[in-house]
Every structure is written in structure tokens, then in C-alpha cells.
Amino acid sequence: MKKIFRLIAIIAALVGCGAVANAQQPEKVPRVGYLSPSSRSTQKHLVEALQQGLRVLGWIEGQNITIEYRWAEGKYERLPDLAAELVRLRVDVIYANSGPAALAAKRATSSVPIVFETLGDPVSAGLVASLARPGGNLTGVSGLGPELSGKQIELLKEVAPRLTRVAVLANPSNKMATAALRETEIAARLLGVKFQVLEVSEPDKLEGAFSAITRERAGALMVLADPMFGTQRKRILGLVEKSRLPAIYVETGWVQAGGLMSYSPSLPEQFRKAAVFVDKILKGAKPADLPVEQPTKFELIINLKTAKQIGLTIPPNVLTRADKVIK
Is residue 306 classed exposed, middle or buried when 0-12, 13-18 and 19+ CB atoms within 10 A define those classes? Predict the structure, then answer.
């Protein structure tokens, strides 16, 4: 009888030790892969917006979540390898900043959930089947890029009523630019403005593009959303200043850095919204069941200092619609 009690005691002790060991094992920390065609320096404020959005939902980087950052530094050809690297790391979800990053991630995996943020149309680009029913392993935040292009042309015409020709800076390597160019051309035609596309796929071609603007005597410039252009922001703004053209951009950072005006959704807000998708997926939701979200608020930012430098007077009716005026 004593042997039986002794055996029971030993078994109980072993079970107890196992329970303690299991209790002491650390919980798995979720890992998010951050894939971007841009550079860390140009996206610092956007990364902070994503981190802020995650913090509100209880995810603190370095404590209960890890983020693996991969930057293509404006070189789209690096995206496939960077996406494949994140897949090999077995991240729980990939956050793809921009259409090109999302496309690279989609080609790299059909199983790892992908959350994207893009100013372009994710349906025409082939990222999702539809906004309401994404299907597959992708979902995220769309910025209504094509529709915005038409509005930007209208704003250029308002600040430069005599405008007859507009130049559009686009990256042909960016599949998301196709729909934006189509909408821009339609808007330009309706407003009686000639349309000149300047295709720039690498930084070394920027000077040649601006020489073409001068030769063709364009009266204004529109810079489409593109991560490569973002890495060359200072250079592009310098060329625009030299040309003395009214120009419109797709992100407030351009205007804060000296550009004339921008009209777009708030990118920091877009990134905070994307954090909600990351949170839901980490808690078990499937991308196919999460409809793509579209912006409800757009920002018009105007830099009056830049307007003065190029001898442009912004009409009062445009100024009153501005969300922010830089003086």
C-alpha cells in the first residue's frame, strides 16, 4: 500500500513539474513583415503612424509584437527577394506599403496574410477580386488613386485658369499608375487641357523628363503617387522650382517640403487604419473576409510661400477649401 501511495506521489510531482514548465514557456510573439519600395528616412512619420495604430490596439513593438522591416530604397527589382525573405522568416502577416510591394508579396506567397496600403485601385491591379469580397490572402486600405487624379487636374486648372497643357510624371514600372493615368487623361480632356505623360522608371531619367516639360511648354505638373518618386522628393522639388511650374502632389509631405499643393487622403490615417487589419488578422480573421476600406476624408494642402516664389496667386475660393495653408 505504501508503494502505491509513493508511486502516486511521484506521478503527481512529475505532472506538477510539467505544468510549471509549460507555464514558464514564453508565449509566441507575433511577427509582422513590413515591405516597402521606399526608404526608412522618407517613411519615418508613416511608420510611426502604423506603430501608433498598433499601440491603440494593444500591440507594442519590442514587447508583444515584432516588426521585420524590409526597404527596397526605390528599387522595385528588389521587392521580390525582400518579399521572399519575409516569407522564409515565417512572419504571421505581411504589411505591404504601396501597390508594387503588395504585388511582390502576392507573388511570393498565397498562404501568409497580406495587408496593403495603396493609393491606387487594388481591383484593376489584380490584388483583390473586389473591394467587398477580396478573396485570397490580401486585404487592406485603398486610396481611390484614379479618382483623385481627376480632382488634381481640376485643382491645377483652378489655380492656373489659362492652363492648356499639363505634364504628368509617372513610373511605368508601377502597375498602379495605369488606372491613374487613364482617369487623369479623361479629366484633362473634359477640361480642354492637353495631356503629356513623362515616364520615369529610374532617378537618372528625371532631368531628361523636365527638359521635355520645357520643350513642350507644359503649364503645370502633376506627380503621380510612386514610392520611387518619394525617395527622390528633394531632387524632384528642386527641378520643379527651377521650372517655376505650379505642381500638385499626392501626399502632404511634398508640400511641407516645399511643393505647391497636394490633394489626397491622409497617409498617416491610412497607415493607422491598416493597423486595424493587422490586429484582426493576428486575432484570427481571414483577409478574404475583410472588405477593403476606402478613405472618407481628403486633404487639400497649399503652400503660399511656394506660390509667391513662382508668381502665382491662389484664388480665394481654393484657399477657403484648403485644410491647411502653409505661409
Answer: buried
Which of 221, 320, 316, 305 shows the shortest CA–CA distance to 256?
305
C-alpha 272/C-alpha 49 separation (Å) is: 6
Domain identity same for 110 and 243: no
| Whether the Cβ atoms of residue 144 and residue 265 lie closer than 8 Å to each other | yes
Phi, psi of 89 (to 5 degrees): -75, -5
Number of domains observed in the structure of the chain: 2
User: Read out DSSP for 157-179?
Assistant: HHHSTT--EEEEEE-TT-TTHHH
**Is the distance from CB of 303 to CB of 324 less than 8 angstroms?**
no
Instruction: Provide the β-strand partners of residue 222.
Output: 168, 248
49 and 133 inside one domain: yes
Range of the domain at 107: 31-143+267-296
Whether this prediction's pTM lies above 0.70 is answered by yes
Q: How far apart are CA 169 and CA 149, in angstroms?
A: 12
Domain assignment present for residue 8? The answer is no
pLDDT in tens, 12-39: 554 554 544 444 455 789 999 999 999 9
Separation in Å, CA 16 to CA 5, 222, 314: 16, 69, 76
